[in-house]
Design goal:
Shape of chain A: globular
Radius of gyration of chain A: 22 Å
CATH architecture of chain A: 2-Layer Sandwich
Distance between the termini of chain A: 63 Å
Largest sheet of chain A: 6 strands, antiparallel
CATH superfamily of chain A: tRNA(His) guanylyltransferase (Thg1)
Oligomer: homotetramer
Order of helices and strands of chain A: HEHHEEHEHHHHEHHEHH
Strand content of chain A: 5-15%
CATH topology of chain A: Alpha-Beta Plaits
Number of strands of chain A: 6
Number of helices of chain A: 12
Number of domains of chain A: 1
C-alpha cells in the first residue's frame, strides 16, 4: 500500500543548511530558570551544584559529538562550537541545534539527583532549554563571540556577588540594593564588597568569575613571544581548504582520534591569546598529541 | 563596565520567523532509537511501555504549551501542531522547535523509571530527540500531513507485525522474513498473519494500528450529514482574520481557557472528516465548551 | 581540463525556494524616481506618459510570463502575482524576482522614447527598479495585500492632487502647502480642492484614483446576489490540490491557453468582491473562456 | 484616512539580510541568450560587439554602486562582488541583486544601438537577465570563486573556438563536430585548431580567453618576491574589524573617494596572486592612491 496521495506534504520542508566554512555556535539557555532556581532553592549568587550539573551535561554533549571544538558555559546558558570544516548532519541548522539541546537536557535531568540529592525534581516543573545557531565567518568573529560571553559572565557575576552580599549579609531589601547599584562601575562594586563585607573580589572562585570552558585535552604547546604577536595579527586567518578536501573516511578517522582525548572543564581566561595558542587544535580543527602515557 | 567592544557579534544572528497565518508542524524523532531499543530490550514489534512513555511526555508538552492545537505520535516520532494564529515566541522557528524537543526529552527521561522499572537508564546511553519545523498554508495541507503520518503508521505496523511474527513465532531468520515480504501488498501480509499465526490484523490494538492523537478535550459536536459534505468541501478554508486582530490580552485569555481543558490521548482515525468535525476547536483555534460538571 | 579544484564554491549557494501552495507577490519599485522625475520633468501630481509607460512594461511582463495571474501598479511601483499552483523556476525567489525586474526594466527603457519623445534618456541617468518577493498563505491575505496597495494609491493621490493644486494653482510654497495639509482628513482635502480650485475629486481620472490592474481577459461571469455572499464568506478557500496533481504537460497546456488571452489594463476597484467574482480565473488559476469570436 | 485594516500584510515580508563580514557575489545571467543571439545574429564563437556591450553595462553598474569591489564577466554572465565590510541596503539580498540586475539591464538596452547599429532591438524580443546572491566567508573562497569562473571561461572558449572552426571553416555539421569533440582534452583541441585551421590558440584575443575584469584603477603596487609568498600563505586572512567600527560618515567618505577612481576593463589572469597583490585595494576595501596627475 503506497502513501503517495499524501506524500506531497514533504515538499513543504525548507532547506536550513548553514553556510559552509563558517564557525557554528549553538547557544542554549535555560527556560524560565529564574522560577526554577526559586523552586529548587538554588543558592545565591551562585549555586555550585547547579553549575557543576551544567558542566557535566556539557561534557557529555562533547563526548557524544566529537565534531564539537569547544564549549563555554555561564549561569544557565552554554555555547557549543563546531569548526568551519564540520559537515555533521550536512550542517542542517535544526538538526544540529535540537541534537545538542536534547542531549544536554537528557543528561541534565538524568544527573539531577546526583547534584541535588535533597531536592528531587517534581513533574511538571522540569528543567528545559531552548537554543539557536549562529554562524561566524572568521576566527576573529568567533573569538569575539567567546570574549563577549566571558566578559558578560564577569559583569553579571560582579553585580550579583555585590547585590546578594548587600541583601543577604547587609540586610538590605532587594529594591534598596538595586537602587544603590544603579549607575555604579566595577571599582564601586569592588569597594562595596571590600569595605562592607571584607571580600576581595579577586579571591572569588574562578568558576564564578570566568565561567567554564570545555574542550578536548591534548599536550599544551609552548607559547613563544614572537608567536604571540604573529597569532594576534593573523587572527582572521581561516582554514582555507575547500570542504571537499577532507574525505568522509578522513572525517571518521578524525572523529575517532577526538574520542580518545579527555574532555576537560577549566575556568580560565579565553579573551587573551594565550589560551588559544597553547591549544592550537581548537582553532585548527586538527587533533593534537595525546598526553604521553607514563 | 561595558561589553560594547564584542557586542557586535549579536548582529550575526539571522531571523528565522515562520510565515504568519500558516500551520506550524514541529516533528521530533528519536535519535538512534534502533540501537536504544536494543540496549533497553524493547519488545517487538511494539513495546507498549515505550509508546506510553512517548505519550505521557507528549501530554506534558501540550500542558506546558497551551498554544499547541494537537499532536500525533507513532513509534519514536511525534508531531506537534500550532494553529495559524499562534504568535508564541514571535513564531521564531528555533525557539519553538527547541522548546518542544527539550521539554519532551526532560519528561521522557524523568518518567523512564515509571515505565521501565527493571531497565534503568545508563549514562551515556540516554534517549534524545531531534526536531524540525515545517509550515503548511492551508487546513487541507495540514490534514494531509496528519494523514500522511497515520497512513505511514499503518503501513509500518502491518509490516512490522508480520515480520516479527515470522521471526519470533515462525522461527525465520530476519533475512528470510525480509526477503519473503519484499514486494508484498497489504492483503498478502494480512493473509500471512491469519493463515500462519491465526492473527486477524483488525483485532490488533488501535494504539499500534492508528498511533496516538493528543488534544484538549471539550464537548464533542454532533456531526450532521449535511455538515459532513460541507466541511469536506470547504476544507481549504482558513481563519482569515489578520494576526493583529487578536490582542495580546485576548491571547492570554485563550491560553487560560485552554489550560482548563483536559489533555487526552486517543487512538482514532484522523484521515476522515469525522474526527475533525466532532472537535471543531482543533482547526478553529477557538476553545470549545468544557464537559458539563455533574 | 576539469574545473574541479574550484568547483566546490558552488556548494555555498543556499536554497531560496518559496513555500509551496502560497500566493507569490513580487513588488518592484522605481529606484530614486523622485530625482528621475525631476530630471525628465514629469508632470505633477501625475504624469500620464509615465504611468502609461509603466503599464506597457507591465503588460509585456505578463505576456512574457504566462504564470502570472494579475498585476497592480501605482506611481513607480508594480506588484506581480503568481498563483499558489505556480511552479515556475521551481519557485526560486531570486530567479522569479530578478526575471520580473529585468524584463520590466528592459521594456521600460526600450519604450521610453515612445512616451517621452522630447526628453530622451541620458546615460547614466537611466531608470531602474528594485524588487522583492513576499508569499501569502490564503486568498484573503492576497486580496488584503491588493486592497492595501489600492487604498494607498487613493490616499497618496488625494494628498498629491491637493498639494500640487495648492502649489501650482494656488501659488503656495511647498512648505506652506505641506504645513496646511498636516493633520487633515479626506473630507478636508476634498473641500480644499472644491472650494479653492473648483475641482470635484470624484471626477478625476480613474487611472490616478484607482491605479492600474493588469490581467488576462476572458468572458466575464455574471455576479448573482447569492454568489456574492458565498464568495465573500469563503474567501479563505484555497486551491487544495497537491502541487503534484498538475503534471508538467498540463502546466504547459495551461500556459498556451493563457498566451491566447489578451492582456488588458483597467482602472477599477479591486477592494470589493465584484471584480474577483466576475473574473474567477484570476483566483482559481484556471483559464476562462476566450471572448466569442464574431 | 488610515490604511490600518490592510496594513497587517506587511508582516509577511521575511528578512533576507546576508551574513555580515562575508564577500557578497551577485551573479547575473542572460535569459534565453541562445535564442537571442540567433535572433540578432551574434557572431560565432564570440561576438565582440556583444561582449563590449556587456562590459560597458558592467562599468556603469560599478560607477553607480561605489560599494562594488570588482566584477568579472564572460559570455552572457557577470559576477559583481561586494566587500565583507559592505553595508549597502543593510545587506538585504533581494535589494542588492535586483538593483544590480535592473541597472545592468537598463544600460544594456540603452546602449544596444551603439554596438548593434544594424540590428535594432525588436519588442518583445528584448534582452533580460536573472541573478542571485551567494556569500563567501574568506578571501580564499572568494578568489576560488573568481578562479572558477575564469577557468570556466577558458574551458568553454577553447571548446567553442574549436567547435565553430570545425563547423564554419571545416564544413562539418554541428552534430559531427560535437561528436568528434566528445571526450577530448585541451591538447586535442589545440591540435585540431592548429593542424586543421592554422590557429595558435595562445594568439587568440585575451578578451575571449580570459574574460573581462572590471575594477577601480589606482596606482599599482610593486610585487616583491617575499610579499608574494606571504600573501599566498595568508590568503584566508580577513578584514577583522567589527562592522560597527566604520561609521556611516566614514563609509560615505570612502564612497566619494571611490567615485573619483576610473573604472577600467582588463582581460588578465585573476587566478594567480599577482593580480591581487598589485591591486591591494580590491581585497582590502580601502581606496588606493589615485594615479599622479601630470
Amino acid at each position: 500500500m503506497a502513501n503517495s496521495k499524501y506524500e506531497y506534504v514533504r515538499t513543504f520542508e525548507q532547506s536550513d543548511i548553514l553556510l559552509p566554512n563558517t564557525w557554528i555556535v549553538v547557544r542554549i539557555d535555560g527556560r524560565g530558570f529564574h522560577k526554577l532556581s526559586d523552586r529548587y532553592a538554588f543558592e545565591k549568587p551562585n549555586d555550585r551544584r547547579a553549575l557543576d550539573l551544567m558542566n557535566v551535561a556539557a561534557v557529555e554533549v562533547l563526548k557524544d559529538l566529537p565534531d564539537l571544538a569547544i564549549a563555554y558555559g555561564v549561569s544557565d546558558e552554554y555555547s557549543f562550537i563546531f569548526h568551519p570544516s564540520c559537515e555533521l548532519f550536512e550542517r542542517r541548522s535544526a538538526k544540529l541545534v535540537t541534537t545538542i539541546v536534547s542531549t544536554f537536557t537528557a543528561h541534565y535531568v538524568y544527573q539531577w539527583s546526583n547534584y541535588f540529592p535533597d531536592t528531587p525534581l517534581q513533574s511538571p516543573y522540569l528543567p528545559s532549554f531552548d537554543g539557536r545557531a549562529v554562524v561566524y565567518p572568521t576566527t576573529r568573529n568567533l573569538r569575539d563571540y567567546m570574549s563577549w560571553r566571558q566578559v558578560d559572565c564577569h559583569i553579571n557575576n560582579l553585580y550579583n556577588t555585590t547585590f546578594w552580599n548587600m541583601v543577604l549579609k547587609g540586610g538590605m531589601s532587594n529594591t534598596d540594593a538595586e537602587r544603590e547599584l544603579q549607575g555604579t562601575v566595577s571599582s564601586d562594586k569592588n569597594e562595596i564588597l571590600f569595605k562592607r563585607f571584607g571580600i576581595n573580589y579577586n579571591n572569588e572562585e574562578n568558576i564564578y568569575k570566568k565561567g567554564s570552558v570545555v574542550f578536548r585535552q591534548y599536550q599544551l604547546e609552548e607559547t613563544k613571544a614572537e608567536s604571540v604577536s604573529k597569532t594576534s595579527q593573523d587572527l582572521g586567518e581561516e582554514e582555507t581548504a575547500a570542504p571537499e578536501n577532507v574525505s568522509k573516511s578522513q572525517q571518521e578517522k578524525i572523529r575517532k582520534l577526538r574520542r580518545k582525548a579527555q574532555v576537560v572543564v577549566e575556568h580560565v581566561d579565553i579573551t587573551k591569546d594565550d589560551f588559544w595558542e597553547q591549544r592550537p587544535w581548537i582553532l585548527s580543527g586538527k587533533p593534537g598529541k595525546l598526553p604521553a602515557e607514563v
